[in-house]
Amino acid sequence: NFGGYLTDVEEEPAELTASVSQLLELGGKRGKKKRMARFTWDLAKNSAEEIRLDLLQVAGERFIALLAAQELERYAEESAQQGQKMYQLVKARVDVGKISPLILKKAGVLLADAEIALKRARQQRQDARYRLAVLWQESDVSFERASGMLSKRYLLPPAKALWQQVREAPET
After folding, report:
1. Is 125:132 a contact under the CB 8 Å cutoff?
2. What pLDDT sits at residue 20?
3. CB-CB contact of 49 with 100 (8 Å)
4. What are phi and psi of 89, to 5 degrees?
């Protein structure tokens, strides 16, 4: 409390009050608030880790889908090439009169089916590329092919061994 007069003429005193205070928490409230803040932090950290793992899973699934689409496209290309060769062979035999032109029409239908399957496979691969690239928010896909092997199997150790590793792992 500071006293004084506003001016020399006035007789009313001017008063200014300044105070400093600190909250004294009783009953362990401060410790409870600290524990609550630590639990909230741990929950946020675990939520972020869960989101990261979910994203990793989705990326893995989309990568495998792209590898599968690439394999499907490769098989479709081989099928279309074989269909083209078969059509040419049948056409040559029809031209010399060895087989009926009806067989050529059947070969043409098979070739058309193979070419349609190839177009579908290419579109599926393209879609799989975009679905993977969208995870890192890229509108223009900057890669043509994914590299990997679908036939390779990764075997996990037995569950008992995994739990043992989890128990022995240092806490972070």
Report:
1. no
2. 76
3. no
4. -65, -45
The interaxial angle of helices 29-95 and 101-133, nearest 10 deg, is 160
Compute the distance between CA of residue 64 and CA of residue 163 in angstroms, rounded to an integer.
27
Find the Cα–Cα–Cα–Cα dihedral 67, 70, 71, 75, rounded to 10°: 170
Q: What's the sign of the alpha-carbon dihedral 40, 45, 46, 52?
A: positive
What is the secondary structure of 60-72 as a DSSP string?
HHHHHHHHHHHHH
How far is residue 67 CA from its own chain's centroid? 15
Q: If DSSP codes are grouped into helix, strand and coil, which group holds residue 10?
A: coil
The per-residue pLDDT for range 111-137, each reduced to its tens digit, is: 999 999 999 999 999 999 999 988 888
Q: How far apart are CA 88 and CA 100, in angstroms?
A: 14
pTM: 0.62
- Spatial neighbors of 146 by CB under 8 A, at least 6 apart, are 63, 66, 67, 70, 129, 132
Per the DSSP assignment, residues forming a β-bridge with 16 are 2
Q: For the chain, which residues score pLDDT lower than 70?
A: 1-16, 152-154, 172
What is the pLDDT, as a whole number, of residue 11?
A: 60
